[in-house]
Amino acid sequence: PFTLLSLFSILQIRYVGWSIAPVLNKEFLILHVYQKKLFESRKDLSDADCNCCSRVVPNHYQHILAFAFAVKEINENPQILPNLTLGFHIYDSYFNAQQTYHGTMLLLFTMESFVPNYTCDTEKNLMAIIGGLDPETSLHMATVLDTYKIPQVGFPLFLSLCTMGVSHFQIRAFKLHLEMCAFHIIRWAIYFAWIQTKNLSEAEQESNMSKGNVWIMTAQMEFTSFVYQRSLDIEITHGALSFSTHSNDLPEFQQFIKRRNPSNTMGDGFISFFWQQAFSCALPNQGVHDIGGDLCTGEEKLENLPGTFFEMSMNGHSYSIYNAVHAVAHALHQFSSLTYFFSNTSACSHYYFCPIGLHQFLRDISFNNSAGDEVSFDQNRELEAGFDVINWIVSSNLSFHKVKVGMLNPQDPLGQTFTINDNAITWHSWFNQVPPISICTESCHPGSSKKMKEGEPFCCYDCIPCPEGKISKEKDMNDCNACVDEEYPNKNQDLCIPKDITFLSYEEPLGLCLACLTLSCFLTAVLTLGTFLKHHNTPIVKANNRDLTYALLISLQLCFLCVFLFIGHPEKVTCILQQTAFGIIFAVAVSCVLAKTIMVVLAFMATKPASQMRNWMGRKSAMYVVLSCSLIQAGICTMWLSASPPFPDFDMYSFNEEIVLRCNEGSTTMFYCLLGYLGFLAIISFTVAFLARKLPDSFNEAKFITFSMLVFCSVWLSFIPSYLSSKGKYMVAVEIFSILASSAGLLGCIFSPKCYIILLRSELNNREHLIRTHKHPK
Q1: Is the predicted pLDDT of residue 673 greater than 50, yes or no?
Q2: Which family does it belong to (predicted)?
């Protein structure tokens, strides 16, 4: 038979201590359960009522444990209700309106005697009530609690059924699921359970159906056995599908259950009676009522009980109770943090909260529970949750367990309100494990999805290939799904393949070519420096400021070496050094060029009689220009590293089949500030050199500087659009090429004419030639 637990639970809060400053709470309330038995017979009930109440349903003990576990979890969490302790009482409604009203009045006025309209037992501060699983219980309670404005948290599924009959979400789910199967293969038996349901075997006989049916059940139906029905044949439910209130796995709850034992569980008034009934044994010093078997050893394990007796995983009803308790606790936490809700009236003393103030916080509550699910209420004050589709499986030894095969989620952000995994369903042996097949269309293969035909039956559809970037792993998928960022679809679009992680490395041709080119440029700069050092006493070397020449050549060598920071596996250190080293060293190089240009102009002006420019002609002036310009760039880099430094980053989207590991600039603005300052120095150098291009030939280095700055500016102006249009590691290659091209331009344009004279036209490298050229300029 199928039964529903009729139970309502009461959540209470006791004031323990309050202080504006945090204090250590030294007083705690021990949780206590106000009930001796799970169900007990009462003389004041009718025979029909007692017939129900004398039966024990062990599976419902999990609901009580879920309630106790939630309160325990809240009291042990210092982030929720600090200095406050939650307590609770559990009352039995006995499926009876009279007892429901009686229990509700006991809650409001007294714990022992029934005295209407008289407030006593002031130690109790009732804040909220968790309604029973039976909807009528919640309605009976609501008529009384509404008068006293005490919040009542029920279960949205059942409360909505009170006015709607059967949940429209469940009906929609049935429709969606039925559309997936052909009616000529299988006939469906749908039974909506309300207060009581019929025995499955009787229902099957009344339905007068042939073999080949599948039971589909609503969330109100639970398969639970009474104690005397251990050997009940439940094979007819094998392969059944049911809708269950959504639940999630709570590993801590599993451990909490496993620790339950009648010998070491204090304050649990249910466990002794449950233990004897569930394991058919008698505890020492306990009365035995219609229980056969030996004495209980205490070594019995709850996980060894049949699934119809007790489930180890938290079911939907228990999960709803768990969320309801946490919702009240979070509302109380917000309530208690606002001191202006405290009242000094006679009804609510300074140290107690008024329950009426809790309503506003319950309406607006929103949080994530320990399983990661969001708990919030919609505009109808119902929990925004869906249903799990459960497949009931009965093994050969008649053991029973449930498997989640789908979900109905009306709040799904992607619009997939109903999902089900046909391959995970275990069908009854009548079907030989073959799901129903459509009669007018072949199954859509993996890599495609179904598209319904207008005006055609629901089982007739077209199979369309998945769009680019999406897959379908199974047959007859309603929609194709996108792979996660780390994967991409295979050619058949039925499987996601992990992307390869790539970066600009020495092993690939592009990285190897750039490294070889960099090494060649570096060696050229080294040879140039060596040539100038060897001929440092010659007129052509002396005439062009040897110190600046050496500084420029060394900085160009370092510019070439910077390229190696861009090749290879990006690390945090290399990412920081890439742009900062490049920016500062290039600033030094361009500053040297600017200083050489200024020195050319000053040298020409100093040749005039009585010129004051002779005072500026010296090594210190040139070094001052280089240092001041370089320090500004160093300041920009320091600000960059302080605000948002570069870091290794994965580029998931540039290429479909690759993940590019590269250095993220951190702050694009600072990166372009660095380039902008280099451009500013280059433009000044170009302008000064261009104005000094017609000086006498002995000081004609300005012509070469003009041309070198023209090359430099052209390279970096073309770099910006090329860099922005590139993707992944090719962005790095573009920057490397720009560094090499601009550095090689400076090296070639400024130093190649001098090297030509030094190495090939040594007869021109003498003082007489320079003086003669100065006297007779071209």
Answers
A1: yes
A2: Belongs to the G-protein coupled receptor 3 family.
The angle that helices 135-148 and 97-108 make with each other, rounded to 10 degrees, is: 30
CA atoms within 13 A on the CB side of 598: 21
Kindly state the helix (H) or strand (E) to which residue 534 belongs, with its residue range: helix 509-534
**pTM for the complete prediction?**
0.50
pLDDT 10s digits, 180-202: 443 333 333 333 333 334 454 45
CB–CB of 660/473 below 8 Å? Answer: no
Report the alpha-carbon distance of residue 358 to residue 296 in Å, rounded: 45
pLDDT for 72 beyond 60: yes
- Per the prediction, the chain carries an average pLDDT of 74
Residue pair 417/436 in contact (Cβ under 8 Å)? The answer is: no
Strands 187-191 and 500-502: unpaired
Is pLDDT above 50 for 588? yes
Q: Decide: residue 153, CB within 10 A, 0-12 exposed, 13-18 middle, 19+ buried.
A: buried
Burial of 364 (0-12, 13-18, 19+ CB in 10 A): exposed
Q: Which helix (H) or strand (E) holds 130?
A: strand 126-130
> Domains in the chain and their CATH numbers?
27-165+247-376 (3.40.50.2300), 168-244+387-499 (no CATH), 509-775 (1.20.1070.10)
DSSP 705-762: HHHHHHHHHHHHHHHHHHHHH--THHHHHHHHHHHHHHHHHHHHHHHHHHHHHHHT-G
pLDDT in tens, 689-702: 888 766 665 545 77
C-alpha torsion sign, points 600, 605, 608, 610: negative
| Burial class, 593, CB count within 10 angstroms (exposed 0-12 / middle 13-18 / buried 19+) | buried
Structure tokens at 255: 């451990």
Task: Compute the chain's Rg from CA coordinates.
Answer: 42
The pLDDT tens digits for 330-371 are 888 888 776 444 444 444 444 346 677 777 788 888 888 888
Side-chain-facing half-sphere of 439: CA atoms under 13 Å? 9
The packing angle between helices 572-606 and 546-566, to 10°, is 160
